[in-house]
Structures are given as structure tokens and as C-alpha cells.
Specification:
By secondary structure, the protein is α/β, with parallel strands linked by helices. It has a single domain, classed as 3-Layer(aba) Sandwich (Rossmann fold). It is built from nine helices and seven strands. It has a seven-stranded mixed β-sheet, sandwiched between helices. The longest helix has 13 residues. It is globular and about 55 Å long. The termini are far apart.
Length: 246
């Protein structure tokens, strides 16, 4: 798993930067009712998306939280109201915010019980009628039918923590009803064999790939042998689900 404190310095440059963040923010705001006045972006990372949520809806007070000190420090430079907090234990009162967002967070939570705990926490702090918007099936979105995906296939996790059916079940148990969905393009996220190999070596795919023994080395060798090592394959499309608190 990546060290997100260290990753904070290069995260935006290696994850599609502003174009990807702008696409995400636009799609998220399309699912947040215009009547919402407060929004907490949990697992906000460097705050690049959070900043654009605020810019896209000036009357919406946008805050952020992240469990990584390095990420939270960068985010505070963009959005003043960012707290260091575990998304399972937020320092927020019950029923006190209109919207909670979680962009590219749930797929990272591999610890047993972590995702239901985060969904429950989002439900706890939402006012009745408030909305929770989250990405689902994040890693699966990167499967664009490329030769890279063919090499990844034997190593894919069979139980992604942000699978749609699992998130739907957690949400229903917490009194959250589905109210909509959306998609947005992962600008700059089309992989090359070289970037994929680097990601394998750095642990970037820990939430998606199961690589026992020498599997990581075997996969890297296979990626190095693919044609067009610097040619980007197709960009992913990420999916959002929106829920309303009863």
C-alpha cells in the first residue's frame, strides 16, 4: 500500500491533475441538490477535487477531511476547513451537514468492516434528506479491455471493497436510499505498460491486485514485454452513486 504522506507531493501530477479533478467535481455537484449549504469531502486527499467543489458552487460551504497528515497539509493550502480525521470517526455532530462526498476512497479500505463503518459515519452526520455521493467500482473502471488488463486479469481481487452491490447493501442498512448516479472521465489516467509496471512495484494496485510470492516480478516482466511501452491505453470512466438519508 502506498505511503500517502509521501505520495502527497506527487499525487496530483500522477493522477490526472486539474482536468480529472474538474470532471469529478462537476459530476459530484450534479448529484448534490442546489439547496445544500454544507458539504464534507471525506478522504479529500490533496484537496484538488474539494477545491473545485467549492468553486463550482460558491454558496456551498465545503470542508474536507483526510487521515493522512501529508495529504491534509496540502489540502489545507487549497481549502481552509480541512481536518485530520479517520473517516470512520469524524469529529462532526450528528445530523449536521447537507452532503458528504467520498471520491476514490472506498476502494482503498480493505480492512474488514471499514467500508460499512465509513458509510454509517456518513449517514450519521447527514441531516434527514441529506445526500452521500461516492465513487464505486473504482478499480474495475480501469479495465478498458487493453493488453495491460489482460495481464492483470489473473491477479484481480475477487472482492473489491467498493463493489456496487456491497455499497448498496451498506447504505440500505444505514437508512440511505439510492437517488441517482453519474459517470465522469478519468482524464490523464490512461495507463502505459511502463506506468503500470511502476505502479505494481510501488504498491499502487494494492486495492486491486493480489500478488503472492514472485507474482509482482512476473507481472512486471510481462508488462515490459508489451508493445508501445509509452503509449497510453484508453482512459477509464468512473461511476458515482448518490444516496439520500431517510
Amino acid at each position: 500500500m502506498l505511503d500517502y504522506d509521501k505520495e502527497a507531493a506527487v499525487y496530483d501530477a500522477t493522477r490526472g491533475g486539474v482536468p480529472r479533478a474538474q470532471a469529478a467535481a462537476r459530476a459530484v455537484l450534479g448529484l448534490v441538490p442546489p439547496t445544500a449549504r454544507t458539504l464534507l469531502d471525506i478522504g479529500c486527499g490533496t484537496g484538488l477535487v474539494t477545491e473545485r467543489l467549492a468553486a463550482g458552487r460558491p454558496r456551498l460551504r465545503v470542508y474536507g477531511s483526510d487521515a493522512s497528515p501529508g495529504m491534509a497539509r496540502v489540502a489545507r493550502e487549497r481549502v481552509g476547513g480541512v481536518v485530520l480525521a479517520d473517516a470512520r470517526r469524524l469529529p462532526v455532530r450528528d445530523a449536521s451537514v447537507d452532503a458528504v462526498t467520498a471520491v476514490w476512497l472506498l476502494h482503498l479500505l480493505r480492512e474488514e468492516g471499514a467500508v460499512p463503518a465509513v458509510v454509517a459515519e456518513a449517514a450519521r452526520i447527514l441531516r434527514p434528506g441529506g445526500v452521500f455521493v461516492t465513487t464505486v467500482d473504482k478499480d474495475a473502471a480501469h479495465d478498458v479491455g487493453s493488453d495491460i488488463d489482460a495481464l492483470f486479469a489473473p491477479y484481480l481481487s475477487v472482492s473489491p471493497s467498493d463493489a456496487t452491490d456491497r455499497v448498496l447493501g451498506h447504505a440500505a442498512a444505514c437508512g440511505l436510499d439510492v437517488m441517482g448516479s453519474g459517470v465522469f472521465r478519468g482524464h490523464g489516467q490512461g495507463r502505459t505498460p511502463l506506468t503500470a509496471a511502476d505502479g505494481v512495484l510501488r504498491g499502487s494496485y494494492a486495492s486491486r491486485l493480489v500478488l503472492p510470492g514472485t507474482a509482482a516480478d512476473d507481472l512486471v516482466r510481462g508488462l515490459a514485454a508489451l508493445p508501445g511501452p509509452d503509449r497510453r491505453r484508453a482512459e477509464p470512466e468512473y461511476r458515482l452513486l448518490a444516496f439520500r438519508r431517510r
